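So, can you check these tokens?
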Amino acid sequence: MARISTAGGAGAPDHTSLNLTRILARLNSILITSDQQTEHRLKVSEIEREKVGTNLKYASSLLTQLEKDAQNIKNLTKKQEAQTELVRKREVLLRLEERLEELNDLAHPEDDDTSEGEDLIGEDTPSEETDSHTYTSPTPSPSTNHPPVPSISAPFETSNPPQFEEPTSTLRSRTNASQREELFNPSLSTVTTGISPRTSHAPVPTTTKESLLTHNRTEQEALTSLLLSMASALKESSKAFAASLDDEKEILDHAGKGMDKNEEALNAASKKMGLLRGMTEGKGWWGRIMLYAWIAGLMVAAILIVFVMPKLRF
């Protein structure tokens, strides 16, 4: 969980991408796919969580640097592939940050009650809550509480011996944990307060349920916000489409008016052409015959003037 320094220059995109991939893989193995011991250390140790947070900030700075470098890629195919990979890494980084916040929320009451220098003080498990309740009880009943004490106190002493030195802190921590258990699973809380040896491992799934509920609630909020944004975007696009239709409607109206004017002009031109045709052709077939007769007479007169009249001698 220590911070990994860059192997080459800070400006080399390949070294930066390699370092970012290694850091994300390491943080994923610590926060997401970690074993029970590592998760327990993260819950009880504020120093370990701070180290993880420092690595997350460093990974975020590397990712920001890679995003800036991706903007300068001239090849569109490589630029698109690099941006897609960076988006995927950004999603992984956000998921790791959410997981760290969940661990901080779960470990916050225990961290406030622990003293300085004790980084690995265990978080109150269900068995420890039962033990602290048993040892801090002011008036234990000899007939009911005394027999379970040896069977419960043995793992308590082997796991966390310093717990006997801080009964008040344990009681406060147990109260906070009991309140959380009552919110999510009142039945388990009731069984735990009954000091039964069989409930030593019952609240372990409760912590897992809390983390799962928190994760599911976060995903639900993200999906809700995404749906709201999509609905608002759809609404805006529909408004823009309606506005464009209105603009196009006005254009179509102007075009229709222009076509009507052109049609009227064509009708007027056709009427004028018919009038000119009637004036040139005369009145019916009789007018045409008269026109042809005049043409024939003029031709005969022209022939007589040209060929016959010069031969006349007066």
In short: Residues 1-122 form one domain. The radius of gyration is 48 Å. Confidence is low (pLDDT under 50) at residues 1-12, 109-178, 182-204. The chain is about 75% helix and 0% strand.
